[in-house]
């Protein structure tokens, strides 16, 4: 895996060396804000940096932890208000519309036309990258959240069969408890709890329900019995968490799976990036499966980059930066490292690992069937204010502050409050 990855990076660098014009030193500093701070993420941002520097652009970055984007967003807003926006920033989901609606972003239509983004980026992602019909963000990947990540040894000790149904999953968690390991590893943040919730909800209710209830906020989809089933399942899962979950980050939870102290984690494909960084091999050291009953769905979270009109960088540098992010080579190499599928559907699968190849196949087929749907947890389903009110209900419930019935009531209220008809 690592050798393949190094080879891919080397090929990328050689290709840029073969183009002397592109190598001309522009003496231009590119300031980039992002939140890729875990081991795997750090390796991935280095891939982007190498590609950008190979085009003669000086890279400076500022890393601010904040995968749920609220904390990161505050730092970015402060920089913009202080009149010091970066040239570019990582961004996900509806946060793009927030910035675009304020008139802060560079319109990317010309580059999009030239590189035919309309043709190669899944429609679900385009609807977030575009605002008012114009491209304002360049998507570099398509992560998905509805995954189970198993420790390989423990998985084999439990029989080595992927859990196909909810009952299968529960019985594996129960077996793990008897083995005296943490059955289900999770971290402290509301976005992580919501990520678990969305897999449970999509599995229990199916794609149509997920789309209507959470993407369209359609009150007629909010069947009380179904919502109760979903929260009951969340309560069942709560029994398999350890007491210390409220004190750790998502990647510390991944470490528990890596070390064999926990059986599995329900997390986005960035976990694959962590495993790969540490030299672990899928199908051997770890295993990835879709969350039961979500096998035909891809709950996506696409990392994108937006450029600020008032940020540093001349037009040529901006163009080169975006063009590079959207190239097939960069999208291959950065996502072999990140664990995501590329944002482009036409990047060859060959150099990706087992989980990466599955992610790419799933992304392509669900895109065709329109079951590639935005992740609630990662803000790809709703605007920030809706996302955070959903976070509050789910986290309160997971921490046991409210019971299943109260959670159903509050979730319905939240969705109805924000539905188009209200
Ligand atoms: C998301 C981001 C992913 C991954 C994850 C965990 O917000 O889009 O790429 O980094 O956070 O940090």
Automatic annotation (TrEMBL):
Cellular compartments annotated: Periplasm
Record flagged with keyword Signal: yes
InterPro entries, alphabetized: Bact_solute-bd_prot1 (IPR050490), SBP (IPR006059)
Family the entry assigns: Belongs to the bacterial solute-binding protein 1 family.
Signal peptide: 1-24
Cellular-component GO terms for this entry: periplasmic space
This protein's name: Probable sugar-binding periplasmic protein
Functional note: Part of a binding-protein-dependent transport system for a sugar.
Keywords: Signal, Transport
PANTHER family to which the protein is assigned, alphabetical: ARABINOSE-BINDING PROTEIN-RELATED, BINDING PROTEIN COMPONENT OF ABC SUGAR TRANSPORTER-RELATED
Originating organism: Litchfieldella anticariensis (strain DSM 16096 / CECT 5854 / CIP 108499 / LMG 22089 / FP35) (Halomonas anticariensis)
Primary localization: periplasm
